[in-house]
């Protein structure tokens, strides 16, 4: 890396998730996954929080993931558009339920394996490096129904079998892997992050942190398997990141901000450093949480740490202990945050803070001393088609431009950055709200919140802008 900017082999690209783009939710032998049970509308958050138990889609509800943008059938044309932009990589996820429809099947589903073979071949044909998330909010429903999902130790062996299956199959096609998407989301949206459904009166903290232990052990086993099967592969963890600012210089606010960050760093501390941190042990003691482990768990965690830190960054967070200021919590963001008076917000209440990306990058790099990969960043906004057919999304260009400038500053600070894959490089279903109108892409997809539309693809103004960014390796913004 020179001292002037991004290295020559910097991985510019975009990011997608199977459950938000593929559709074809029961085609090709695929089983139901947890996101297939998350409706749009008023019940969505209750389901995502694990408060509504339902193991099949309900009548009268709309499920955006069932068709999504039909990437399952349209991936060749979409990948050609990504290649036209000059993508060096594409972050995509594998749907666990396409490979093992029930999760506990004896043999994998060959049709599912073949589908990803064809997708990776198409990417490699265009010199696009696959960056693959093994589990992106994607848990076979049969595992939730039969075992209670990640609250059960049984999930560890099923996940390991799944990972070894895909590593053997795609070992010559995929170099970059991430074990769990936004693993800390388990604490914020338990059904989305870990397929957890709670019964009344249960100790939610105990269940969530036990599930976290199982995921962390599973992640270490996947890292071990990857390094055995693919010695040249790089395996990463993935954090929903964004540094927490204290609202004031009151030491109570500063400590509260540290505690909030630790809540999320907990997972990555273990995946990157290989052991439970002291602050977590104290938290468990003070909250009556007892982690049930098996012999060899802690040795496994210590010996199989990740090679890089993947993270999403959309906004920073802000916290206080002042009860009056706490009344100004923002809406629309999964993470608890008060309104930062120095920042503007998106239409969905997400505070826009490019400088926060530099701060977050430096914080993570100094904490872990491992390469970073910014695998999500973007602006959800309503896009309008003009009378001449154009889509002038200058607001998206401005958002991304300012963030890329701060990425460059982080590189100049000495942060080792592998690549940058803005979220939703083609419009897809919003993970938080289930909407189509909350668009992120450089490519417009003709579909609305009611599921109507032709699914035709159309380039936005940002398409050609990002093409120039990649061609100039971030110099032309």
UniProtKB/TrEMBL annotation:
Keywords for this protein: Glycosidase, Hydrolase
Active site per database record: 376
Pfam short name (any one): Glyco_hydro_1
InterPro entries to which the protein is assigned, alphabetical: GH, GH_1_N_CS, Glyco_hydro_1, Glyco_hydro_1_AS
Coiled-coil segments: none
Annotated GO MF terms: beta-glucosidase activity
A GO CC term assigned to this protein in UniProt: cytosol
A biological process from GO: carbohydrate catabolic process
Family listed: Belongs to the glycosyl hydrolase 1 family.
Protein name: 6-phospho-beta-glucosidase
Organism per entry: Clostridium cavendishii DSM 21758
């Amino acid at each position: 890396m020179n001292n002037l900017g991004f290295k020559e082999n910097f991985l510019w690209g975009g990011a997608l998730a199977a459950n938000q783009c593929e559709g074809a939710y029961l085609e090709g032998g695929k089983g139901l996954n947890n996101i297939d049970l998350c409706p749009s509308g008023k019940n969505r958050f209750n389901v995502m929080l694990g408060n509504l138990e339902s193991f099949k889609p309900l009548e009268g509800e709309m499920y955006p993931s069932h068709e999504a943008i039909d990437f399952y059938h349209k991936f060749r044309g979409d990948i050609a558009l990504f290649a036209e932009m000059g993508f060096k990589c594409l972050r995509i996820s594998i749907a666990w339920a396409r490979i093992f429809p029930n999760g506990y099947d004896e043999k994998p589903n060959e049709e599912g394996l073949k589908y990803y073979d064809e997708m990776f071949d198409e990417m490699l044909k265009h010199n696009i490096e696959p960056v693959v998330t093994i589990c992106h909010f994607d848990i076979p429903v049969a595992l939730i129904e039969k075992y209670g999902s990640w609250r059960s130790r049984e999930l560890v062996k099923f996940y390991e079998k799944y990972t070894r299956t895909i590593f053997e199959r795609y070992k010559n096609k995929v170099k970059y892997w991430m074990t769990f998407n936004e693993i800390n989301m388990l604490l914020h949206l338990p059904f989305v992050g870990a397929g957890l459904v709670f019964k009344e009166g249960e100790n939610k903290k105990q269940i969530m942190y036990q599930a976290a232990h199982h995921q962390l052990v599973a992640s270490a086993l996947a890292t071990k398997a990857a390094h055995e099967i693919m010695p040249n592969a790089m395996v990463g963890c993935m954090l929903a990141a964004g540094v927490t600012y204290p609202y004031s210089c009151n030491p109570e606010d500063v400590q509260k901000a540290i505690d909030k960050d630790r809540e999320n760093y907990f997972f990555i501390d273990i995946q990157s450093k290989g052991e439970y941190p002291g602050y977590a042990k104290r938290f468990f003691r003070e909250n009556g949480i007892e982690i049930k482990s098996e012999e060899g768990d802690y040795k496994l965690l210590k010996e199989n740490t990740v090679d890089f830190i993947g993270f999403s960054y959309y906004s920073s967070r802000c916290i206080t202990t002042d009860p009056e200021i706490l009344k100004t919590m923002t809406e629309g963001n999964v993470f608890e945050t008060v309104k930062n008076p120095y920042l503007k917000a998106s239409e969905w209440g997400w505070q826009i803070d490019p400088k926060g990306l530099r701060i977050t990058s430096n914080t993570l790099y100094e904490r872990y001393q491992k390469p970073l990969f910014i695998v999500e960043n973007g602006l959800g906004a309503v896009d309008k088609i003009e009378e001449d057919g154009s889509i002038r999304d200058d607001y998206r260009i401005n958002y991304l431009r300012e963030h890329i400038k701060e990425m460059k500053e982080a590189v100049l600070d000495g942060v080792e950055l592998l690549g940058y894959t803005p979220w939703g490089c083609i419009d897809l279903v919003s993970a938080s709200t289930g909407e189509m109108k909350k668009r992120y892409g450089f490519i417009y997809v003709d579909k609305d919140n009611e599921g109507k539309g032709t699914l035709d693809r159309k380039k936005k103004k940002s398409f050609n802008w990002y093409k120039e960014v990649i061609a100039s390796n971030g110099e032309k913004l």
